[in-house]
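Field reference: sequence -> structure
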Amino acid sequence: MDDLSRALGASKKTLYQFVTDKADLVNRTMENHLALEQNQIAEAVKDAPNAIEELLSIARHVTSHLKGINPAIVSDIQRYYPSAWQLFTDHKMNFVFNIFLNNLKRGVAEGLYRDDINPDILAKIYIARMDLIIDQRLFPFSKYDFVSVYQETLNYHLHGIASAKGQAYLEKKKTSQ
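Structure field:
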C-alpha cells in the first residue's frame, strides 16, 4: 500500500478512504478486470461470421491478454487472495462456460463442429483446461509460457470438435494466411 500511495502521489490515508485494505484493493481490481474482459470478449465475438471465427477471435483476445500476465501474479492471487481467486473461478464457471457452450451449439448448428459432441461436457472441459494452462506442476513457468500452452490446447480443442466441413474451413484459412 505504501508503494501504491507513492505511485499515485496520494497519502495512505487518502487511499484508505477508497479501499479497506490490500485484499479489498485486489478484489476490486479483479472485479474491474473481469468486467472489462467480459465486455472485450462480447465485442470480439459479436460480428463473427461463424463459430470457428468466433472461437479464433476469442483466442486472439486471450493470447494478447496472456502475453502480459506475470506468472508470479497468478500464484500470488491464488495463495494470498482467495476471495479474488474465487471471483476469477466464478467468472470461468459462468461467463466463460456460457461463451463456450453457446459457441459449441452454434458450431454444431452451422455444421462446422461435429454433431455428435456434447456441448455441456466440452464447455466444462474447456473450463478445466484453463486451470491446466496455469498449473506449474504440468507446465513450469521456467519451461513453458502461457501463450504456447494456450495455443496448443486451443488447436487440440478446435481440431477435436471440427466436422469435415469445419476441418476444410480451417485448412482453407490456414493456406490463405
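Note: The chain has a mean pLDDT of 92.
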